[in-house]
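Session log. Operator J.P. requested a structure for one protein chain; no other inputs attached. Running the standard single-chain path with token output.
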Amino acid sequence: MRGYLLSGVTLGLAAGLAPGPMLALVVAQTLRYGWREGVKVSLAPLVTDTPIVAAALLILARLKQVEAALGGLAVAGGLYLGWLGSELIRSPDPRAGIEVAPGSLRKAVTVNFLNPHVYLFWMTVGGPLVIEGASAGWSRAAAFVAAFYVCLCGSKVVLALATHRIRGPAGSTAYRIALRLAGLALAGFGVWLVWGGLTRFGVGR
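Structure written below.
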């Protein structure tokens, strides 16, 4: 039991704090709209991961189509991140009185669904651990899953709260610079995903 708990904690913290699209989105939404929106992004895996795990197992069952499926997800996800990043870079000055709906949960759910690395994790690490734990008793599998999601989502919630504390007043020079840097980070991850997706189709090899 302890081994599965420790695995869940370790992998959850690693996934929660590793640089990536979701981490950048937590920071971006918190900077732009406040901690509540960052927390919504942080909790998105609780909404998305059940169908993602099912899809990952389905993809795994069709090994010949794995590369194409993951490549397509990466390209679509990268383009979406690029759009989010450009939207953030071009976001209006909050002092101008222009209201833009946050849509934090919708954005986070879309990003998570289109991130091939989530599917790869469940196909190569998470799924096998759950199956192994379940074979020895469902309590072990449940301990791993619970520890993983508490640490995955909890670490991002802590990041959202910390970002909110240091973001500075809306409209300040530091705030605008931070917002644009977050936008560039999202766009950068978008380019990275698109390139990774294209290489799965043999481009650049």
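Operator note: The first helix runs from residue 2 to 17.
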